[in-house]
Specification:
By secondary structure, the protein is of the alpha/beta class. Helix content is 50%, strand content 10%. Strands 1-4-7-10-13 form a five-stranded parallel sheet. It has a five-stranded parallel sheet with strand order 3-6-9-12-14. The N and C termini lie far apart (69 Å).
Length: 314
Amino acid sequence: MTDHLQNELTIAFPGELGRVVDGLRLARRDWRTGHARHAERGIRFPSRQALARILRELGAALFPLRLGPPELTAENENRWVEATLESTLSQLAAQIALELRIVSPAIDSVEEGVRAERIVGDFAASLPAIRRLLDEDIQAGYANDPAARSVDEVLLSYPSVAAIIHHRLAHRLHRLGAELVARVIAEVAHAETGIDIHPAARIGRSFFVDHGTGIVIGATATIGDRVRLYQGVTLGGEPSVTGAARDAGEAFVRRHPAIGDNVVIFAGAVLLGPITIGARTRIGGNVWLRRDVPPDSVVEVAEAIVAPAGGIAG
């Protein structure tokens, strides 16, 4: 803070700033006393800024000629990918080590390093399969959007693809035990794209999100193959279930919808609770749904009645 600004604050709030600082100290003390399990203890947490940077580098390593630096060619991309992964995976291991210290406070530095390296090694081994999954997602975007002129356009300009890349990577980390790191990655994608996918959600092949803003997919949701969602869709938990389920150790008992293969869910639809939507079903826009739907169904709200000019439809 500059001396000028400090002087302005002192003049504007004579005697008040000290009381504010002391009030904040008391608030921190009360929180730390009353929430021992989650108290702030000066522990370093995984860095959102670092993870956002790591995800950008991983995305570039997955698609080097499209998301990497402009000087890359087919001849030198492999060397660049190797160097990028060597650096980026090391940074990821450091972030995972921070999480391990939080969940296992008694862990020693040797065990911490071994566990972080094992998680990152398994994650790295998954990258070729994740790239192939993403190829199918991008192709689904091109196939399902008549406005798309190429798969490159889908990769480079569709926010839903950025969200899906983040999710595929975060989901793998979540499965490997780096749950906090995965959750931070998911929130980075949410902030950038408006698409909120919990990293525990299971999503099948050839997933396409059109537009995407406002989509919410909960932790225990499962989505089959070749599913298409439009903006504003919610796959949410049962409204009556609160944090009590988490505290009782039931956080990942199924609380969200299970969506079958080849389902289309249009804009604004809200699906709540552990319901099952059968394969090849179409859910219309703005539907509010809390019951199972059999395969090959169409669920829609009544169409609006359009009155002729100067009168009301009879």
